[in-house]
Amino acid sequence: MSAYLVLLMNDIIQRLKERAKIQPKTIILPEFEDSRIREAAGIIEKEGIARILLLSPDKIDTKMKEKYAQDFFNLRKGKVNSLKEAREIISQPIYYAAMMVRDNSADGFVAGAAHTTPEVARAAIRCLGVNLRLGVACSCFIMVLPDYSWGDKGVFIFADCGIVPQPDIRQLASIAISAAELAREILENPPRVALLSYSTKGSARGEIVERVSKATKLVRQMDPELLVDGELQADAAIVPDVARIKQADVILGGRANVLIFPNLDAGNIGYKLVQRFSRARAIGPIILGLNRPCSDLSRGSSVEDIVGCIAVTAIRAQS
Description:
Blueprint: H1 3-22, E1 26-29, H2 35-47, E2 51-54, H3 62-75, H4 83-90, H5 93-102, E3 108-110, H6 117-128, E4 138-144, E5 155-159, H7 169-186, E6 192-196, H8 207-222, E7 227-232, H9 234-238, H10 240-245, E8 258-260, H11 264-277, E9 281-288, E10 294-295, H12 303-318
Parallel strand pairs: 1-2, 1-3, 3-10, 5-8, 6-7, 6-8
Antiparallel strand pairs: 4-5, 4-9, 9-10
Helix pairs in contact: 1-12, 2-12, 3-4, 5-6, 7-8
């Protein structure tokens, strides 16, 4: 990768950092034992991107721990059998951190360097709750490409890449709405959302094609002002010349910046291929559809990835 392209990518990340600095938020990091987390926390604090609470054992208040256990027991009645079980769950740092965010003692949390996505997602969903309007928790990656000609000056949002295996029509539409809302917070231009399939405008048939097409119609009902189209093949969504050839250029013009994958297989494989083949930065997974902001991390995250994820979580907390 040329020095020029690296500079462009770094410029995008720097803009995210600068936006986070405007109104610094408190972000809690429960994986204090991970050296990458500690290094990222140092960078965040040094640059003033956010206020960091590194959740080491000495930062856990015994009285608050008991309060959170009682709150969690009440919250999960019927699913948590006893207060003793609730105490055991809250003893896990990711649950304690999530309850701090629920309690407004922190503005968001970031974890995943030492936990799997299902572990982080369960803690987030159980403690923060799913937004009733959206009805589904999902995840996305902010993909920063070294080539400015793609997406939104080199930036895409990919969803869902980490949580919902086979979204139904309603879930797929809600994933699109959630990703579009994140795009409004993060991107400098309005979201242009493409719901992807192996078909473009009826060029093929199948259950997935029909589901994506119906989900697109539902998105338009949920947000009539949103620029959204589907079902589209990936090239028709992001390449203007292909969009014209396949007669899919009316709404998006082959310039989508938010890509909604039909299932988790496609989303997870897609982001990893783009990340590795194009040497893109993958910030996330950002967990969407909850009542408060939080982010997961890939266990293979670099320190730079963690810093970017914290910055995005802080920006989301501002709104």
